[in-house]
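--- STAGE predict ---
source: upstream dedup step, 1 unique chain passed
mode: sequence only
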Amino acid sequence: MAIQLSPVLAAQARDNRGGFSVKSIDLQELGERASPILVLDDFRVTGRPFPLHPHAGFSAVTYVFEDSKGSLRSRDSLGNDLVTGPGGIVWTQAGSRVVHEEIPADASRELHGLQVFVNLSAKNKLVAPRMFRLQKSSVPEWRSGAGDCVRVLVGSFAGLLSPLVPAEPFDFLDIELQSEMSLNLASAHNTIVYVPEGDIIVHTAAREQEVSGGHALGIYGSGGHVKLEALQRAHLVLLSGVEIREPVVADGPFIMNERSQIEGAVSRYRAGGMGHLPPLSDS
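--- STAGE serialize ---
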């Protein structure tokens, strides 16, 4: 099957609460073609709106946009306590278990980021948990003479390889598009192009589709080239992974294949089997 574009665009749904605002992309619009991505949230946050919490069965990924005023502090039950600045990424591969907390490093400075939940296939649902982190200075960058820039957070582009290698193949590219560029998409991967701002046209051999700011487009098929054209200066994020054709059972912070696995994760957490993370003091 040649490269196909999703018949509809996924749009943002906005949610504003005290100290937290999020523009969630409605991935249900893309159906199974969103797999392995389960959550895609463009968020802004100050303070500490969320308590520490467990995860299992997937990877929780937070990318700090370069325009963020503040940095991200990530703590977990594996012993990590790290601060990641604008342009950096934290990939928490929860696997069998982890308790973590992600908050603005400075409660007075707004953190702007992208939260992505990436499903794990059945063989890796209970893989040992790990946290991967890249600061901006460690992210490979490609630039064109026309001013286009691709930051290779995960995966590869134009011969550049990210040092962040999760359990399953994935590409995470942050793109500033001034003119146009071609991308080679892998076979059997589902790809989501999310446009935070600007307007682009995605071209394939059979079709073209305009994508405006605040929308996402699904791309899938047997692999090949697509062309991205900026109608005006645009910022976009490309996420691409192997489609997981397995049952998905999600319950709060756990994503598994069967209800019994969810029950097992809940039991492990309640028994302390996911580790411990002391709450931060307010001082």
